[in-house]
């Protein structure tokens, strides 16, 4: 299925467990690049943190067109691809909130604040991907 919004089924798939997203962007020289990111689907967007000085951070400021893909690598095999536009913020309160939420998802509730304090600091960015196209196959065996 192809959409322009994150359906409830897609959000449930994306937020299940500790599924890692593979973020794709265009390098300064035009090369396609990809890297894993911790992310959340919330309020109709995908959100993650990255350093302002990283290749991702610099590239998203230069060209906000991105794609994030997440999959289920076991039966029934599934994937979601979200193409979109990255919106960047360095708001300290939002940075701490997102870093803490990501820490809780990926490292467990008992370590959420630790990761929030570690990753919700100046020099980090909050990145929100506003979907322009969502492609999903939530059961490739059907």
UniProtKB/TrEMBL annotation:
Q: Name one GO cellular component term.
A: cytosol
- GO MF term set: coenzyme F420 binding; oxidoreductase activity, acting on the CH-CH group of donors
Q: Which residues form the Pyridoxamine 5'-phosphate oxidase N-terminal domain?
A: 7-134
Query: Which keywords does UniProt give here?
Result: Oxidoreductase
- Output the Pfam families linked to this UniProt entry: PNPOx_N
Q: Which residues cross the membrane?
A: none
Taxonomically, which superkingdom?
Bacteria
Entry-linked SUPFAM superfamilies: FMN-binding split barrel (SSF50475)
The record's annotation in PANTHER family points to: F420H(2)-DEPENDENT BILIVERDIN REDUCTASE, HEME OXYGENASE HI_0854-RELATED
For this entry, the protein name equals Pyridoxamine 5'-phosphate oxidase
Q: Which species? A: Pseudonocardia autotrophica
């Amino acid at each position: 299925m192809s959409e322009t919004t994150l359906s409830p089924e897609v959000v449930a798939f994306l937020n299940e467990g500790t599924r890692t997203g593979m973020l794709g962007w265009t390098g300064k020289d035009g090369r396609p690049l990809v890297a894993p990111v911790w992310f959340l689907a919330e309020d109709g967007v995908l959100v993650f943190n990255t350093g302002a000085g990283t290749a991702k951070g610099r590239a998203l400021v230069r060209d906000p067109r991105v794609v994030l893909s997440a999959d289920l690598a076991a039966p029934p095999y599934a994937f979601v691809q979200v193409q979109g536009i990255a919106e960047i913020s360095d708001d300290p309160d939002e940075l701490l909130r997102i870093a803490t939420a990501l820490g809780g998802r990926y490292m467990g509730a008992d370590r959420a604040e630790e990761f929030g304090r570690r990753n919700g600091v100046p020099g980090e960015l909050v990145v929100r991907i506003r979907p322009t196209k969502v492609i999903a196959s939530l059961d490739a065996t059907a």
